[in-house]
Amino acid sequence: MQQIKRTKLGITICLVVLLTLVLGACGNAGNNNQTNKETGTNDSSGQSKTVATREYTDATGNKIRIPANPQRVVTTQYLDAMLALGVKPVGATSYLLEGVYLNGKIDGIADIGNPTNVEKVLELQPDLIIATEDTTPEVKEQLEKIAPTVVVSFGNGDVFKQLRDVAAVLGKDKEAEQWIASLNKKAEEGRKKLAGKFKKDETITIYMTYGKDVLRVYGARNVGHVIYRSLELNPPEYIRQKLAQDPKFNFVYDSISMEKLPELSGDRIIMLVYDEATKDGILKEIEQSALWKNLPAVKNHKVYFIKDDPWFTYSPLAIDKSLDEAIQMFSGDPK
Protein backbone atom coordinates (compact mmCIF):
# COMPACT_ATOMS: atom_id res chain seq x y z
CA MET A 1 0.00 0.00 0.00
CA GLN A 2 2.87 2.40 0.90
CA GLN A 3 4.55 1.53 -2.39
CA ILE A 4 1.41 2.59 -4.33
CA LYS A 5 1.26 5.94 -2.40
CA ARG A 6 4.94 6.64 -3.13
CA THR A 7 4.37 5.91 -6.82
CA LYS A 8 1.37 8.29 -6.99
CA LEU A 9 3.38 10.97 -5.16
CA GLY A 10 6.26 10.59 -7.59
CA ILE A 11 3.96 10.92 -10.59
CA THR A 12 2.37 14.04 -9.08
CA ILE A 13 5.77 15.70 -8.50
CA CYS A 14 6.82 14.93 -12.08
CA LEU A 15 3.65 16.47 -13.45
CA VAL A 16 4.15 19.63 -11.37
CA VAL A 17 7.78 20.00 -12.54
CA LEU A 18 6.79 19.41 -16.16
CA LEU A 19 3.99 21.98 -15.95
CA THR A 20 6.37 24.52 -14.40
CA LEU A 21 8.87 24.06 -17.22
CA VAL A 22 6.21 24.44 -19.90
CA LEU A 23 4.79 27.61 -18.34
CA GLY A 24 8.29 29.04 -17.91
CA ALA A 25 9.12 28.37 -21.55
CA CYS A 26 5.91 30.07 -22.64
CA GLY A 27 6.73 33.08 -20.50
CA ASN A 28 10.22 33.40 -21.95
CA ALA A 29 8.89 33.13 -25.48
CA GLY A 30 6.49 35.96 -24.80
CA ASN A 31 9.32 38.20 -23.51
CA ASN A 32 11.52 37.45 -26.52
CA ASN A 33 8.78 38.45 -28.91
CA GLN A 34 8.91 41.96 -27.48
CA THR A 35 12.53 42.44 -28.52
CA ASN A 36 13.84 39.65 -30.71
CA LYS A 37 12.15 37.39 -33.16
CA GLU A 38 13.37 34.84 -35.68
CA THR A 39 12.17 35.05 -39.24
CA GLY A 40 12.82 32.76 -42.17
CA THR A 41 14.64 34.16 -45.22
CA ASN A 42 16.53 32.77 -48.17
CA ASP A 43 20.26 33.24 -48.59
CA SER A 44 22.02 33.80 -51.93
CA SER A 45 22.00 30.05 -52.61
CA GLY A 46 18.25 29.85 -52.11
CA GLN A 47 18.59 27.93 -48.84
CA SER A 48 16.27 28.88 -46.01
CA LYS A 49 17.89 30.39 -42.93
CA THR A 50 16.72 31.92 -39.67
CA VAL A 51 17.49 35.57 -38.91
CA ALA A 52 17.07 37.27 -35.53
CA THR A 53 15.10 40.51 -35.78
CA ARG A 54 13.97 43.32 -33.50
CA GLU A 55 11.34 46.03 -33.66
CA TYR A 56 12.52 49.57 -34.40
CA THR A 57 10.52 52.81 -34.53
CA ASP A 58 11.98 55.12 -37.17
CA ALA A 59 11.81 58.91 -37.66
CA THR A 60 8.38 58.68 -39.28
CA GLY A 61 6.91 56.79 -36.32
CA ASN A 62 6.70 53.52 -38.25
CA LYS A 63 7.42 50.36 -36.29
CA ILE A 64 9.60 48.15 -38.45
CA ARG A 65 11.06 44.72 -37.83
CA ILE A 66 14.70 44.89 -38.78
CA PRO A 67 17.65 42.44 -38.59
CA ALA A 68 19.24 42.41 -35.15
CA ASN A 69 22.63 42.12 -36.86
CA PRO A 70 22.32 43.44 -40.44
CA GLN A 71 24.96 42.19 -42.88
CA ARG A 72 24.11 43.89 -46.17
CA VAL A 73 23.03 47.50 -45.71
CA VAL A 74 22.19 50.04 -48.42
CA THR A 75 21.97 53.74 -47.55
CA THR A 76 20.74 56.77 -49.46
CA GLN A 77 22.47 59.26 -47.12
CA TYR A 78 24.45 57.88 -44.18
CA LEU A 79 27.57 56.39 -45.76
CA ASP A 80 29.87 58.64 -43.72
CA ALA A 81 28.13 57.86 -40.40
CA MET A 82 28.18 54.12 -41.10
CA LEU A 83 31.89 54.17 -41.83
CA ALA A 84 32.50 56.09 -38.60
CA LEU A 85 30.71 53.25 -36.80
CA GLY A 86 32.84 50.61 -38.49
CA VAL A 87 30.08 49.39 -40.81
CA LYS A 88 30.66 49.33 -44.57
CA PRO A 89 27.44 49.39 -46.62
CA VAL A 90 27.11 47.35 -49.78
CA GLY A 91 25.58 50.29 -51.65
CA ALA A 92 25.26 54.08 -51.37
CA THR A 93 23.97 57.06 -53.35
CA SER A 94 26.26 58.42 -56.09
CA TYR A 95 27.20 61.79 -54.59
CA LEU A 96 28.16 60.19 -51.28
CA LEU A 97 30.90 58.27 -53.08
CA GLU A 98 32.42 61.44 -54.56
CA GLY A 99 33.97 62.79 -51.37
CA VAL A 100 37.75 62.96 -51.67
CA TYR A 101 38.00 62.84 -47.88
CA LEU A 102 36.62 59.26 -48.04
CA ASN A 103 39.34 57.99 -50.37
CA GLY A 104 40.52 54.56 -49.29
CA LYS A 105 37.41 53.90 -47.23
CA ILE A 106 34.79 53.25 -49.90
CA ASP A 107 36.36 50.60 -52.13
CA GLY A 108 33.84 47.94 -53.05
CA ILE A 109 30.74 49.98 -52.23
CA ALA A 110 28.26 49.89 -55.12
CA ASP A 111 26.82 53.08 -56.61
CA ILE A 112 23.00 52.98 -56.41
CA GLY A 113 22.58 56.16 -58.45
CA ASN A 114 21.08 59.56 -57.72
CA PRO A 115 18.11 59.44 -57.68
CA THR A 116 18.05 55.92 -56.29
CA ASN A 117 18.10 53.15 -58.89
CA VAL A 118 15.72 50.61 -57.34
CA GLU A 119 16.81 47.82 -59.69
CA LYS A 120 20.42 48.30 -58.61
CA VAL A 121 19.37 48.12 -54.96
CA LEU A 122 17.51 44.88 -55.70
CA GLU A 123 20.64 43.39 -57.28
CA LEU A 124 22.58 44.04 -54.07
CA GLN A 125 20.14 41.90 -52.03
CA PRO A 126 20.27 44.10 -48.90
CA ASP A 127 18.82 42.93 -45.62
CA LEU A 128 18.35 46.56 -44.47
CA ILE A 129 17.96 49.96 -46.14
CA ILE A 130 18.59 53.26 -44.32
CA ALA A 131 16.97 56.26 -46.00
CA THR A 132 16.01 59.84 -45.11
CA GLU A 133 12.75 61.74 -44.78
CA ASP A 134 13.42 63.19 -48.25
CA THR A 135 12.90 59.83 -49.92
CA THR A 136 9.86 60.10 -52.17
CA PRO A 137 6.85 57.94 -51.23
CA GLU A 138 7.08 56.12 -54.57
CA VAL A 139 10.74 55.17 -54.11
CA LYS A 140 10.25 54.31 -50.44
CA GLU A 141 7.38 51.95 -51.32
CA GLN A 142 9.60 50.16 -53.85
CA LEU A 143 12.50 49.92 -51.38
CA GLU A 144 10.24 48.45 -48.71
CA LYS A 145 9.46 45.57 -51.06
CA ILE A 146 13.18 44.77 -51.24
CA ALA A 147 14.16 44.98 -47.55
CA PRO A 148 13.12 46.64 -44.28
CA THR A 149 13.51 50.38 -44.90
CA VAL A 150 14.24 52.68 -41.96
CA VAL A 151 14.00 56.47 -42.16
CA VAL A 152 16.59 58.43 -40.17
CA SER A 153 16.05 62.19 -40.06
CA PHE A 154 18.94 64.22 -41.49
CA GLY A 155 17.85 67.74 -40.52
CA ASN A 156 16.47 67.07 -37.03
CA GLY A 157 19.48 67.62 -34.82
CA ASP A 158 23.23 67.98 -35.19
CA VAL A 159 25.89 65.65 -36.53
CA PHE A 160 26.09 63.83 -33.19
CA LYS A 161 22.37 63.05 -33.20
CA GLN A 162 22.69 61.86 -36.78
CA LEU A 163 25.44 59.45 -35.74
CA ARG A 164 23.52 58.21 -32.71
CA ASP A 165 20.36 57.66 -34.76
CA VAL A 166 22.22 55.60 -37.36
CA ALA A 167 23.95 53.70 -34.55
CA ALA A 168 20.59 52.87 -32.98
CA VAL A 169 19.49 51.23 -36.24
CA LEU A 170 22.70 49.24 -36.55
CA GLY A 171 23.05 48.31 -32.89
CA LYS A 172 26.28 50.33 -32.62
CA ASP A 173 25.44 52.69 -29.75
CA LYS A 174 28.71 52.02 -27.93
CA GLU A 175 30.75 52.74 -31.06
CA ALA A 176 28.89 56.04 -31.56
CA GLU A 177 29.69 57.26 -28.05
CA GLN A 178 33.34 56.26 -28.46
CA TRP A 179 33.56 58.18 -31.73
CA ILE A 180 31.96 61.32 -30.26
CA ALA A 181 34.27 61.17 -27.23
CA SER A 182 37.27 60.88 -29.55
CA LEU A 183 36.21 63.91 -31.60
CA ASN A 184 35.55 65.97 -28.47
CA LYS A 185 39.01 65.08 -27.18
CA LYS A 186 40.56 66.15 -30.48
CA ALA A 187 38.62 69.43 -30.30
CA GLU A 188 39.84 70.04 -26.75
CA GLU A 189 43.43 69.43 -27.80
CA GLY A 190 42.89 71.77 -30.76
CA ARG A 191 41.62 74.55 -28.50
CA LYS A 192 44.71 74.17 -26.32
CA LYS A 193 46.98 74.28 -29.38
CA LEU A 194 45.30 77.47 -30.64
CA ALA A 195 45.32 79.17 -27.24
CA GLY A 196 47.10 82.49 -27.67
CA LYS A 197 46.51 82.52 -31.44
CA PHE A 198 43.25 84.43 -31.00
CA LYS A 199 42.49 87.52 -28.95
CA LYS A 200 39.78 87.06 -26.33
CA ASP A 201 37.01 88.93 -28.18
CA GLU A 202 38.22 88.24 -31.72
CA THR A 203 35.41 87.18 -34.05
CA ILE A 204 35.34 85.06 -37.18
CA THR A 205 32.74 85.05 -39.96
CA ILE A 206 32.09 82.13 -42.30
CA TYR A 207 30.95 82.90 -45.83
CA MET A 208 30.17 80.58 -48.74
CA THR A 209 30.24 81.59 -52.39
CA TYR A 210 28.34 79.50 -54.90
CA GLY A 211 28.02 79.88 -58.66
CA LYS A 212 27.69 83.31 -60.20
CA ASP A 213 25.69 85.15 -57.58
CA VAL A 214 25.23 83.33 -54.25
CA LEU A 215 26.87 84.64 -51.06
CA ARG A 216 25.79 83.06 -47.77
CA VAL A 217 26.82 83.46 -44.13
CA TYR A 218 26.99 80.43 -41.83
CA GLY A 219 25.81 79.47 -38.37
CA ALA A 220 26.58 76.34 -36.34
CA ARG A 221 26.27 73.51 -38.89
CA ASN A 222 28.70 72.29 -41.53
CA VAL A 223 31.75 74.58 -41.32
CA GLY A 224 30.18 76.38 -38.37
CA HIS A 225 30.11 73.20 -36.27
CA VAL A 226 33.90 72.99 -36.37
CA ILE A 227 34.56 76.71 -35.90
CA TYR A 228 31.91 77.72 -33.36
CA ARG A 229 31.27 74.47 -31.51
CA SER A 230 34.37 72.29 -31.66
CA LEU A 231 36.94 75.10 -31.47
CA GLU A 232 34.60 77.49 -29.61
CA LEU A 233 35.66 80.54 -31.63
CA ASN A 234 33.51 83.67 -31.53
CA PRO A 235 30.91 84.37 -34.23
CA PRO A 236 30.15 87.96 -35.25
CA GLU A 237 27.32 89.67 -33.36
CA TYR A 238 24.71 88.98 -36.05
CA ILE A 239 25.38 85.23 -35.97
CA ARG A 240 25.72 85.21 -32.18
CA GLN A 241 22.17 86.57 -31.89
CA LYS A 242 20.90 84.03 -34.41
CA LEU A 243 22.47 81.16 -32.45
CA ALA A 244 21.07 82.51 -29.18
CA GLN A 245 17.59 82.26 -30.70
CA ASP A 246 18.22 78.88 -32.35
CA PRO A 247 21.34 76.82 -31.50
CA LYS A 248 20.68 74.75 -34.65
CA PHE A 249 20.76 77.83 -36.93
CA ASN A 250 22.50 76.71 -40.10
CA PHE A 251 22.92 79.65 -42.48
CA VAL A 252 21.11 82.57 -44.01
CA TYR A 253 19.58 80.73 -46.93
CA ASP A 254 18.99 83.74 -49.16
CA SER A 255 22.05 85.23 -50.78
CA ILE A 256 23.16 88.30 -48.88
CA SER A 257 24.11 91.50 -50.68
CA MET A 258 27.71 92.67 -50.79
CA GLU A 259 26.64 95.82 -48.94
CA LYS A 260 26.24 93.59 -45.86
CA LEU A 261 29.93 92.66 -45.80
CA PRO A 262 31.07 95.46 -43.42
CA GLU A 263 28.22 94.64 -41.01
CA LEU A 264 28.65 90.85 -41.00
CA SER A 265 32.41 90.45 -41.31
CA GLY A 266 34.37 89.64 -38.16
CA ASP A 267 38.05 90.12 -37.34
CA ARG A 268 38.75 87.03 -39.40
CA ILE A 269 36.93 85.57 -42.40
CA ILE A 270 36.60 82.03 -43.69
CA MET A 271 35.48 81.91 -47.31
CA LEU A 272 34.18 78.54 -48.54
CA VAL A 273 34.54 78.44 -52.31
CA TYR A 274 31.94 75.85 -53.27
CA ASP A 275 32.66 75.37 -56.97
CA GLU A 276 34.80 76.48 -59.88
CA ALA A 277 32.03 78.68 -61.29
CA THR A 278 32.21 80.98 -58.29
CA LYS A 279 35.86 81.90 -58.94
CA ASP A 280 34.89 83.86 -62.03
CA GLY A 281 31.48 84.72 -60.60
CA ILE A 282 30.49 86.13 -57.22
CA LEU A 283 33.91 85.58 -55.60
CA LYS A 284 35.70 87.61 -58.27
CA GLU A 285 33.12 90.37 -57.93
CA ILE A 286 33.58 90.44 -54.15
CA GLU A 287 37.36 90.51 -54.23
CA GLN A 288 37.39 93.38 -56.73
CA SER A 289 35.04 95.51 -54.65
CA ALA A 290 36.13 98.39 -52.41
CA LEU A 291 33.87 97.03 -49.68
CA TRP A 292 35.91 93.84 -49.50
CA LYS A 293 39.31 95.51 -49.75
CA ASN A 294 38.48 97.82 -46.84
CA LEU A 295 37.43 95.06 -44.42
CA PRO A 296 39.78 94.79 -41.39
CA ALA A 297 40.16 91.03 -41.92
CA VAL A 298 41.30 91.62 -45.51
CA LYS A 299 43.67 94.41 -44.60
CA ASN A 300 45.17 92.31 -41.79
CA HIS A 301 45.56 89.25 -44.04
CA LYS A 302 43.23 87.14 -41.91
CA VAL A 303 41.13 85.60 -44.67
CA TYR A 304 41.12 81.81 -45.12
CA PHE A 305 39.90 80.17 -48.31
CA ILE A 306 38.60 76.60 -48.04
CA LYS A 307 37.04 74.06 -50.42
CA ASP A 308 33.70 72.29 -50.21
CA ASP A 309 35.40 68.91 -49.58
CA PRO A 310 35.31 68.14 -46.69
CA TRP A 311 34.11 71.42 -45.16
CA PHE A 312 30.65 71.62 -46.71
CA THR A 313 29.58 68.09 -45.78
CA TYR A 314 27.76 67.81 -42.45
CA SER A 315 28.55 64.28 -41.35
CA PRO A 316 30.94 62.67 -38.83
CA LEU A 317 34.05 61.87 -40.87
CA ALA A 318 33.82 65.15 -42.77
CA ILE A 319 33.64 67.07 -39.49
CA ASP A 320 36.62 65.10 -38.18
CA LYS A 321 38.68 65.90 -41.28
CA SER A 322 37.59 69.56 -41.24
CA LEU A 323 38.66 69.85 -37.62
CA ASP A 324 42.14 68.60 -38.54
CA GLU A 325 42.37 71.14 -41.33
CA ALA A 326 41.08 73.99 -39.15
CA ILE A 327 43.69 73.33 -36.47
CA GLN A 328 46.43 73.26 -39.10
CA MET A 329 45.08 76.38 -40.78
CA PHE A 330 44.95 78.51 -37.65
CA SER A 331 48.12 77.20 -36.04
CA GLY A 332 50.20 77.80 -39.16
CA ASP A 333 51.35 74.19 -39.29
CA PRO A 334 52.26 72.95 -42.78
CA LYS A 335 49.82 70.42 -44.24
TrEMBL record:
Residues 31-50 are annotated as: Disordered. PROSITE patterns: FE_B12_PBP, PROKAR_LIPOPROTEIN. The keyword Signal applies. It comes from the Bacteria. Residues 1-29 form the signal peptide. Keywords: Signal, Transport. Residues 70-334 form the Fe/B12 periplasmic-binding domain. GO terms for biological process: iron coordination entity transport. GO terms for cellular component: outer membrane-bounded periplasmic space. Pfam families: Peripla_BP_2. It is found in: Cell envelope. Belongs to the bacterial solute-binding protein 8 family. This is Fe3+-hydroxamate ABC transporter substrate-binding protein. It comes from Paenibacillus kribbensis.
